[in-house]
Task: structure prediction
Amino acid sequence: MSEKWKTEISKEGTVRGYKLDELINNLTFTEMIFLILKGELPKKNEVKMMDAILVSCVEHSIAPPSITAARISASAGNPLNAAVAAGILGIGDFHGGAIEASAKMMQENSEKNADQIVKEYREQKKILAGFGHKFYKDVDPRTVQLFKIAEENDIVGKHVKFAKELEKAIEKNLGKKLVLNVDGAIAAILSDMNFDWRLGKGFFVIPRVVGITAHVYEEKTKEKPFRRLSEEDIEYSGKEEKELPKEFRRK
Result:
């Protein structure tokens, strides 16, 4: 007989030990997310911070891979759940994954010197996740707001301070600024809230599902089926046209 599957999350009628019908009547969605991920009920300041983090990740235009993947899937005639799943699969190390990588780096190195960390990453030709942005070059406004809320709710700890030190160290060592982006800000805040770095992608996936769902619905109701690139958007970079060798011709 195989070993039983074990879970501390729930059993029929309860979640983390609390009766589900009581949770339905009393908890907000954000509070429920905190409870199920952390295993404990949140404090008021933690709810405020979590709300802000979730809102910051819901939507960021039609261009990111998770949205284009979802809309293209929807345009091919797939049902909403399949198109949303395609969007989630469009989330990876370079889109949405930086929270996890940045949190891991901060949780493992926050006691070290920021300058030394930057030098080590440069020598090893590794990317410091959570820094730099395609559009925001001087400051990421989402980072400003999240750090402000963290300060107001007494969330700021060693990881947020370390993130700010890293931003300065990067500019000092590289001679140019790589802005502390929203992924790095969330990574630092979650680390100060004692969330394991392995939950990093989850804090992007959970809210972004809402944005993806909205885009899939819009695609299905506002656009014609079978979305595709136009010929003007495609540049062929392969070999020139050539004759098939005689030995391969069968007709």
